[in-house]
Structure formats: C-alpha cells, structure tokens
Amino acid sequence: MTTAAAAAPPSEFRTGLTNAKLGVWLFLASEVMLFATLFTTYIVLRLGASEWPRGWEVLNVPLGFTNTLVLIVSSVTMVMAYAKCWDRDYKGFRIYLGVTIALGFVFLGIKSFEWAAKFRVHHFPSTSIYYALYFTMTGLHGLHVICGMIVNGALFVLSKKEWDHPLFMGRVEGSGLFWHFVDIVWIFLFPTFYLL
Amino acid sequence: MSDRAAAASIDPRVHHPHRPEVNVYVAVFVALAVLTVTTVLVSYWHLPILAAVAVAMMIATVKASLVATFFMHLKGERAFIYGILAMTVFFVLFLFILPISDQDLLSGRTTHTNVTAEAEAR
Predict the structure, then answer these.
(1) DSSP type of residue A10
(2) Would you call A128 and B99 a contact, using CB atoms and an 8 Å cutoff?
(3) Which pLDDT belongs to residue A17?
(4) A2 is a domain residue
C-alpha cells in the first residue's frame, strides 16, 4: 500500500461528514417538511375560519412560557453534554445529559397537566378546529420529546461501555441535533397557539 | 488488534470540527431567555392580529436561528449540510406559499365554521 493510499480518508468522510451525521441532517430535513405541512394546515384553516380564539383566551400562557424556558435550558445542557464529551469529561457529560433527560420529564409533566386540564372541561380534538390542531401539533411534538429522551437515555446507559468509542461523540452530536430541532419546533408552536 | 482496541486508539474528536464554545452557549441562552420574555410581554399588548403575527414570528425566527447557528453548530458547518438545508427551505417556501396564495382564502371567504366552547359562551 502506498503512503498516499494509506493517508486517504475512509470513503464515508469524503464529504467531511460521517454517515451518521449526514443521516441525521437528512432526517431533520424530512421532519421540517412534516411540521411545515402542519403549520400550513394551521394557516389555511385559520384564514378560512369565521372565528378563532386568541391563544391567551383558551390556554395558560405562564405554563407555556415555563415550558419554553425548560426546553431552552435543556438545549443548553444538551450542548454542554457535547462540550464535556469533547473535553473527555465523563462525569460532566453524564451530569449534563442526565439534566437534559430530567428537563424532558419536566416538559412532559407540564404538558400533561395542561392537556388534563383541557380534558376535565371536556375540550377534546373534536371540540373545534383550534383544539384539533392544538392537540395534534403539541401531541406530535410531545412524541418527539419522548423519542429524544429515549435516545438520550440510551446514550446515558451506553456511555458506561462506549465512552471511548470513536463514534460515541458523533452519536451525542446526532442526538443533540434532534433535541435542538425539537426545541426549534416548540419555539414556533408556543407563539402560534399561546400568543396569537 | 481488536476492533474495539483499534477504535479506542483514535481520538474521537478527529471527525468533529465543532470545538465547543461554552461562553457562546451561555450568551445564546441569555439571548433566548430575553427574547422569550419579550415575545410574551408583547402579547399582553393585544396587538391587531397581523402585527401580532409579524412580531411573534420575527422573534421566533431569530430564536430558531440562534439555536440552529450555535447549538446545532451550523456556523462553520460543511457545505454539504448547507446544500441539504437550502433544498429544504426551497420546498418549505412552496409548501407555505401555494396554499396561502389561494384566492378564496385571500378574499376572506369563510370556508368552514370554527366555534370554540368559549366563543359559544360569549
């Protein structure tokens, strides 16, 4: 084998990206289309509606505001987990990733409380188009939060054995990309349903 | 050498161009928190719907851009990722513009009734 051949990067790095990272970004592109479709549905239905409630009339703005802050803080702890991974600080990584997962539970807890409050006064997806969209879009977002927590939980467990694996940091980065995307979706959902 | 031993001999950072910048993360967090408070405060003014949408979506777009640029490390990302995102933005714009430019909707024609329990009570 020549020296040049030995120095050539593996084929998967020719774009400068690992397959995993490329895959996560392509997946996120498809997710953007999914949520964009729902937002378009919201716009079309609202423009054609004879009446539409303003968000603060029907939802609890302080709770939505709190959940927004919870997700923003969880994005910071997620990126800090990546930073600790880079620094090869195992303990720090597990603390930040653990806090990220815990904040996911806080978010879901608050969301469940909000949903339960609506169900108690008999507000269901069938009540109105507003509630159909509210439950569909926040429900789909909640599912994404759960998926992100499962992946982060798996990384938390796997880190015991896989910490030194060269692809482990890529997995943390990929999971982080998904978690930040979930945060971005909420950044648009919050004003759409609570403030407009 | 086993796969695991070979793997462990490589610095995992070699494939990751994004050196973490903790100070930047903290600054972005502060900006996101301030913008979140701002968007909520503005909503208490009960602006007309068009102005409210413009302000809320502008603030949300800035917040989303901050998350994507710094937390998702789009700043300094490979050109290939920019290409994927440019294609996504192109199709998303079509997705928004085509249905919304429907003349029936623009003319304000009511296409369905939407009455909430609260609205009924009023």
Answers:
(1) P
(2) no
(3) 83
(4) no
